[in-house]
Each structure stands twice: as structure tokens, then as C-alpha cells.
């Protein structure tokens, strides 16, 4: 399984249930990268989707303990349930937010990270993969600047475990 996230310089990813700064280049990269995938998101992240509508062209999975249903989303009550669905899909991506990334990261072996070089105040963070010995920077896929903000799309991979 894989994940996709946009992080600020302090690995912050959001504040008050939304992303304080979002780049259109990153939205495009997200759309391209997740196209056709099964995508797994927490209930709070889905509440931030425009109109709380499922993302088109993807199988949308929502993690919630509440039993809440939203049309177009398959509900999972645990990360294990989501993992079972992911294993049946051709390609599955975890798309946030903070609590779901943390819980699903151990099951992921690739991470598409957009680094947005700015530091707005965040209340939700992603683990810093640059300081995690279990991961390495495999490839810089894109880089650019938008509205004076530099960004890079980086693919991190989990190191093969040595036994
Ligand atoms: N920068 C990025 O790329 C990016 C991407 C996505 C989101 N975000 C940001 O991340 C923030 C949201 O993250 P968050 O941590 O607050 O919320 P979240 O992870 O999106 O959603 C949390 C909710 O998911 C459900 N959930 C979590 N763990 C579960 C489990 N083990 N079993 C069943 N359900 C579970 C619960 O829903 P119930 O309460 O309904 O039970 C929980 O309240 C926002 O600021 C958003 O903008 C950023």
C-alpha cells in the first residue's frame, strides 16, 4: 500500500480540519497519482472534501467508528478492515489525515510527499520521514514554484528489512 501527503517545512499537514496553504500543482499531482486507486481517508478529511463528495474515478473508503454513512463512500470501522479492502484492489493509497496516516504508515511501503516550502501554523503533523531510518528518499519526481512558494514531489520508499 502507498500514501500521498503534502507537508510544510515542519511536516505540518493541516490546521482546523483543513490545509492552510494548498497549491494547484499539488492538487494536480494528487489527482494524477491517485487516479483509478482505492483511496482511504479518515472521516475528518472527508468532511473537508468539496461538498463531501467522493473523489471521481476512485474507490473511496472512509474510516469512521461512528457508523456514519456518506453516499459514495465504503465505510470501514478499523484500519484492518481498510487493509483487507486495499489488498483486494489493484492499487491503494492512504490520503489522510493525520490520525489515519499514523495508523496506516506501518502498512505502507511507498510515500508520495509534496514538500511545500512554507511553514503556516499546523495542528496536525505527518511523521518526518527524513529522520526515520526506516525510509529513504528514492526519487524527486517534480519541482517548481507557485505564488512564490517552492515545492517538490518526492517519492520515499521503505527500506527493505534486514534479517
Ligand atoms: N496535507 C495533506 O496532504 C493532508 C491530507 C489529508 C488531510 N490533511 C489534514 O489532516 C487534518 C485531518 O486529520 P485528523 O487526524 O484530524 O483526522 P482524519 O485522520 O482525517 O480523520 C479522523 C477520523 O477518522 C476516523 N478514524 C481514525 N482512526 C480510526 C480507526 N482506527 N478506526 C475507525 N475510524 C477511525 C475517526 O472518525 P469518527 O470520529 O467518525 O469515528 C476519526 O475521528 C486536516 O487538517 C486535513 O486538512 C492534510
Structure in words:
The chain is α/β, with parallel strands linked by helices. The chain has one domain: 3-Layer(aba) Sandwich (Dihydrofolate Reductase, subunit A). It has four helices and ten strands; from the N terminus they run ββαβαββαβαββββ. It has an eight-stranded mixed sheet, sandwiched between helices. A two-stranded antiparallel sheet has the order 2-8. A hairpin with a 2-residue loop joins strand 9 and strand 10. The radius of gyration is 15 Å and the shape is globular. The mean pLDDT is 96. The structure holds NADP nicotinamide-adenine-dinucleotide phosphate (NAP).
SSE topology:
Layout: E1 2-8, E2 12-14, H1 24-34, E3 38-42, H2 43-47, E4 59-63, E5 73-76, H3 79-88, E6 92-96, H4 98-104, E7 110-116, E8 124-125, E9 135-146, E10 149-158
Parallel strand pairs: 1-6, 1-7, 3-4, 3-6, 4-5
Antiparallel strand pairs: 2-8, 7-10, 9-10
Residues 5-6, 13-15, 17-19, 42-45, 48, 63-66, 68, 77-79, 95-100, 103, 124 line the site of NADP nicotinamide-adenine-dinucleotide phosphate (NAP).
